[in-house]
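User: Hey, my collaborator sent me this sequence without any context and asked if I could get a structure. I don't really work with proteins. Can you help?
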Amino acid sequence: MQIFRRLLRWALILAFSGLLLAVLAVGVAYWLIAPRLPSVAELKNYPMQVPLRVLSADGKLIATFGETRRIPVDIGHVPDRLKHAVLSAEDADFYHHPGVDWHGIARAGWHVIVTGGDKGPGGSTITQQVARNFFLSPEKLYSRKLTEIFIALRIEHELSKDQILELYLNKMFLGHRSYGVAAAAEYYYGKTLDQLSVAECAMLASTFQLPSAVNPINSQKRALARRNWVLGEMLRHDYITRAVYEQAVAEPNRAYPHEQPIEVDAPYLAEMVRRQVLDRFGNDALTEGYVVWTTVPSGRQQAALEAVRTGLVAYDRRHGWRGPEAHLELPADAGDADFDRALSGYGSVSGMQPGLVTASSEKQATVYLSSRESVILELPAMQWARPHINEDRVGAAPTKVDAVLKRGDIIRLSRDDKGEWQLAQIPAAQAALTSINPEDGSIQALVGGFNFVRSKFNRAVMAARQPGSSFKPYLYSGAFERGFTPASIINDAPLALPDPSRPNGIWTPSNDDDKFAGPMRLREALVQSKNLVSVRLLDAIGVRYMREYATRFGFSQDAIPANLSMALGTASVSPMSMARGYAVFANGGYLVTPYFIHQIDDRNGKAVYVANPARACRNCQERLLDTRPPGPPPADMTATPANNLARAGSAGEPAESSSVDGVGEAVLPADVHGGNAPPVLAPRVIDTRNDYLITSLMKDVILRGTGSAARALNRDDLAGKTGSTNDHRDAWFVGFNGDLSTAVWVGFDDYSSLGRGEFGAKAALPIWMEYTGTVLKGLPPSTLPMPPGISTVLINRNSGLPTAAGDPDGINEMFKVEDVDRLRSQAAQQKEQDQQHAYDIF
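Assistant: No problem. I've predicted the 3D structure and written it out in structure-token form, which is a compact way to encode the shape of the chain:
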């Protein structure tokens, strides 16, 4: 008995000593570690990494940028069934322990002892996991574990249980770049948290342990087993009833990837936004949860995208079938697995699905799309597929299916307006469209190419192409400032000018049709796009003057050639710069600067940037008080000069402007968030009367000139100009009314010819018409009223001079009032000379 008491006493002494040593060890450890422990107070307002979101003007998603998917959610918006699932899976006693589960730590310690050092189960509570994920590395070290415990105790002291759980549910990685339960629910199920079933809640809770290895997409069997275990734990803790448990266990796994739905197809614009936001906020822009509101309405962007794609496909089909994208020799016994392997490297491109021809005969072909769908194509589905010979020629229309398609061909299919499958091919040519609001330069639509995935080069802002005849309105505007009028007579006749750069030392420009009309009025010359008239006109006003005058439309002098070829549109411009230049005519003579970001909000919805762009603001009080005459804009408003075309053309690559940020002339306007600011006035660069006269000429281009196809839109407020370059390398149409200025370009990136007859009116105008007709449908006409100082005078159509009322060749023409007396004086002198000539005969 005494021995037993002695042993008991020693046991108690040893136990007490061990406890004392343990407490002492913990105290020493805390004394050593405490100075290095982070402050946990910051967790109260910890900013989660949230990707950058880009929205249209009407709030539809254009893009998200960031490495993580995360949708922070308040704990009050997390349904109880999801909380219970997570607690059952990870920490059933969460609301009862002080942040550390001593029993769990003891079990983990015993496991280390009996296994000889295996650090398997960690025994970490939710609070400890929060400590590890916010402050520590995942290394399995005893020192790290001890630090984790100390931090967890501090967290419990600083935060409530709900605050800790909220951090946990928003922070944890749950597979497939999804962080937090809300992002995981959206990715796996396409649902918000309140829409999740009990089984889906349990599945999400099951991914916390091994998110990359055990999730409902990568390892469905393991995930289902883990989910059912979580459901069992929920039943054991009385969170669900037996009936709910059985129903949830029986529910199949319906998870599959749900990428965040892109509602507006504007990838070129999205990339411009990303660059501009990074420039303003730095790399934090991609993680701070900013929401960018662009100026682009979703409907207009969609109309632009469809117009560009439809126009390019129409052009491409005019030039014939270039053959399959690839051809494979298929074994006779090839099956679905072989077909899937053959198509594995091909994805959908702008609605064109890849397919494999598995059988072909004279009457029909079978095209394999997937294990769930094969398509039978007959001759009508490929009637357009004349064989491509070169850019100017195609062969005869096909009469047999197997003359077009062979077994083993990899081709493209698309659906027509009736939903029927048709043979398709990805266009080789490219196109771009930029549409801006003439009032303030806000971009209304932007398409930089046929497909962003295939080519990220943004032709809408980065291309440096020759505008051809679409540059002539700027020349005519400059001439009107030098005393020329719409009725001035210029000779459309052959011209030979010295040019040392040419083999024979002579430059002989010509009209597109190689015909000459003789003396003609400038109005008719622009309507018919006469090149020789433009060259003579430029020669009359001077190249140096015109290069300086072109800066009034936003162009840099470096982009304008210092010779007479300027008259034929040999400058280097982008669709955005052309839309901007024509906006001057659309708004009454003011140079606005394109922009595409209207507002930027932080993660809490508070505006951190609101744009205040320079506006035409014709009727603003500030504008009415502005008496400054028209003149060149400030130097910083002219477009960035383009790189030379020869370098890019010789390399077979698209030419690019020298703008390093890839947004062209677009800017981020002055910021007025947090207060009101007076309107910023755009500089007045041309006289309103000059503007009105040029616009009237361009209205005639549509009424009876090279743009006459646009009359089909049945609007009287449209004005514009076609443009084509040598060998049909570029096709343009730039047009406007009071609400929109839109430029469309079509061409090849390597400067190949579009083919004989592919003028701007044929290749580019249909795209402009489809877009403009769609976005202006139902809107009232918008055009500038005739300004003071314009007179309408009866003139002789042949001489361009004022005439009497009874003249059978009399027509009405518009002039600046100061030109009328001068022209009448010239008419009187001309009459005297004619009479004198008649007397001299006798």
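In plain terms: Residues 28-32, 641-660, 838-842 have pLDDT under 50 and may be disordered. You can pass these tokens on to your collaborator as they are.
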